[in-house]
Design brief:
Order of helices and strands: EHEEHEEHEHEEE
Structural class: alpha+beta
Distance between the termini: 36 Å
Number of helices: 4
Strand order of the largest sheet: 2-6-5-4-7
Helix content: 25-40%
Number of strands: 9
Shape: globular
Oligomer: single chain
Length: 171
Amino acid sequence: MTKFIEDKNMKTQLMIELSDKTKKQIVDQLADFRKLYPQFQWGRIEDYNILVHSFGEFSDKKSTIKLLETALYDKNTFYLYSFEVAMTIQNNISIFIDFRREKEIERISESINEVEKFVPRLILAKYKIPSKQQYFVIKKRLSNLEVDISFKVNKLSLFEGEKRVRVFKLL
């Protein structure tokens, strides 16, 4: 299977972990679309997490954890609601679910990396750039997809590669 984050074993990342129930909802709601495009490089369901911030390679684990403890000290739990399933095109196409902007996650993001307008995004699949005709067909099908996902976020997890290093609970 494809790993979406290059050198994943070397990166330290703050993530929103999705529950098994939420992952199942996503899989169920996208089942028909996935069947239409088995050639896409679909992400492993167990890797469905939402990236909040990538710290790159770990150089000082203690200072990163201290930074996060301070940044997350007084942050509250919040809910995420799916907004749309969409696609971007760069070196390939990426299919993803965007979630509605949420003030609390924006405050968290801003306190860590000074990004004010953070949009939570779950990358689902990648594929080579299709022909223009195929591209517009995919885009049209995505615009007709209705995905209704919502869940409570009460913790953020720090990962080193695929290993969870620390869990930060929100108030």
